[in-house]
Structure formats: C-alpha cells, structure tokens
Amino acid sequence: MNDDFASLFAYTKWANDLMLEYCRKLTQEQYTAEPVPGWSSIQSTVAHIAVATEGWMRGVAGLPTDSFPSQDAFQTVDSAAAHLQKAYGDFERALPGFTAEWLATPRTFKGRTRTVVVPPWVVLRHVANHGTYHRGQVASKLKRFGIDPPLTDLIYWAAPEFFQNL
Length: 166
Known about the structure:
Layout: H1 2-23, H2 28-32, H3 42-60, H4 77-94, H5 100-104, E1 107-110, E2 115-118, H6 120-144, H7 154-158
Antiparallel strand pairs: 1-2
Helix pairs in contact: 1-4, 1-6, 3-4, 3-6
C-alpha cells in the first residue's frame, strides 16, 4: 500500500506541474482575472490547490496546521509551484512511516475551521482526488483564455507512449 501512495503522489505532482506549466502561458492579467463573470480566477483555483495540498500534507506529516496563506501569497504561478514543493517535501518525509497500521489508524486533522477524524489513507486519497477535480476547473478556465489545457489524466502519466500521436 505504501507504494500505491508513492505512485499516486508521483502522478499528482506530475499533473500539478503540467497544469502550472500551462498556466505560465497566461499573461499576469489573465492569471488573476475571472475567465467568465462569476468564475473564480485561475490564480484563486491554483492557490486553493496549493494551500489544500500543503495543509493536508502537513497534517499527514504531523506538522502544525494552524496557519494558511491567503490567495495574495500566490501572485505568480511560481509562488504556487514553490508552495506545492513544500507539500511534496512533507509527503516524502512522511512516506517511510506509511505502514498498513499507521495508514488505517484514525487521526485528527485540523483545518482553518473544521476538524475531522479519519485514517490517513483517506486524506491521502482525498488530496489526489481533490487536485484532479480542481485541475479540471483550471483546464476549463485555460480554454476560456484560448489555451488548450494539458492532458493530465492518470493514464497519460502511466503510459505516455500510448498517447504520443494524439
């Protein structure tokens, strides 16, 4: 099961990095603008991915989760990328402790306004699923700015040679 999470987060990192690469094609104005009235900006969605990923990973690693940066901390794609790198580092440091017993034992995870008691395996899978959901939102927003979004489905990471000529 430990290897399952290593693979899942290798995929998640790859997909987030690819999403950020495509976000770098935006002008600063596009990055911070609503792509359609009433839709949040790409900056807002990317900031949410970064803050949520890092917050959950700090919780998994047993680190404090009492402060979270605001969207203002993510004025550029590179600032979001740096924040995600911290989250990936927390994951890598925690990974050796992912025994079957540890993954299955409920723990308390605290967020900004809520607390939940669940086994760490739930949080780890949630982070990957949550990122996929919000990368889909970023893909739609990129399209609104005339940028064809990247293909970030798991299969493109696992078997890139199969899809090379699409």
